[in-house]
């Protein structure tokens, strides 16, 4: 069974519904709940419907060869594994985030990076799960996600069509949203390949959105014009902050402009039925020549 509409929380995702805008906070909170709350405020103020985080069990999700690699951080030099624990939110932080997101009227969820993180997010009562592009081939985790019965949003960056086929086969298509993505940071226009949005829609018959890592707004806006029904962008309080994702993120003003422009485009797309609009009647009576 396939569907071209999926319900997440109070929102319907699909053609004819408002574009579902996801503000990707990721790790841009730098391990600070107050930063996370400020970023939720940015998302809400801009008019996004959702905020997204990332959830890892560092011991499992950190590649073995990286664990002991030294990392310079604002808290001093530490191993990469120690750094991962330093910026990871656990139950107390996510309880606070869940309450804050609910108070602000915005969905919150996360990308689990390992199987225990799926259990953690289920305990936290998320509305949906997001599969990061890096996890498309983590078939064990995909099976665990499918078993939750929740809607799944699957990013497709750095994946072949065969790998996406396998993931879709596991997840099913009755509550799946695909996100076209290219996992180049920052994304150059020649790698955006936006026409893939339609390729994915035709192949899988599910709602398809766009997850972007480009500087600027044009490519995300064009994605909506090409039929993307959801848009995800990283947000930050300040692109010069310490951390790996800030530079490829939108600051509050840029994100606000993006959501504003998406809302204009979705209105402008219309229904494709050619008609004479009310605003045309006055010019028509003044300007139109009709030959007998």
Draw up the topology in text.
Elements: E1 5-8, E2 11-14, E3 20-26, H1 33-46, E4 50-55, H2 58-61, E5 70-73, E6 76-79, H3 80-87, H4 91-104, E7 107-112, H5 115-123, E8 129-131, H6 139-147, E9 152-155, H7 161-171, E10 176-181, H8 196-204, E11 208-212, H9 218-225, E12 230-234, H10 252-269, H11 281-287
Parallel strand pairs: 3-4, 3-12, 4-7, 8-9, 9-10, 10-11, 11-12
Antiparallel strand pairs: 1-2, 5-6
- Overall shape: it is globular
Rg is 21 Å
Broad structural category: alpha/beta
CATH superfamily: Aldolase class I
Intertermini distance: 55 Å
Q: Percentage of helical residues?
A: 25-40%
Strand segment tally: 12
CATH architecture name: Alpha-Beta Barrel
| Average pLDDT | 95
InterPro entries: Aldolase_TIM, PseI-like, PseI/NeuA/B-like_N
Protein name: N-acetylneuraminate synthase
Domain PseI/NeuA/B-like: 39-274
Pfam family, one: NeuB
What characteristics describe this protein?
292 residues; alpha/beta; TIM Barrel; eight-stranded parallel beta sheet; two-stranded antiparallel sheet; 12 strands; 38% helix; globular; N-acylneuraminate-9-phosphate synthase activity; Aldolase_TIM; N-acetylneuraminate synthase
Explain how this protein is built.
The chain has a single domain (6-287), classed as Alpha-Beta Barrel (TIM Barrel). It starts with a strand and ends in a 5-residue tail after the last helix. The protein contains eleven helices and twelve strands. The chain is of the alpha/beta class. One of its GO terms (biological process) is carbohydrate biosynthetic process. It comes from Microbacterium paludicola. InterPro entries: Aldolase_TIM (IPR013785), PseI-like (IPR051690), PseI/NeuA/B-like_N (IPR013132). GO terms for molecular function: N-acylneuraminate-9-phosphate synthase activity.
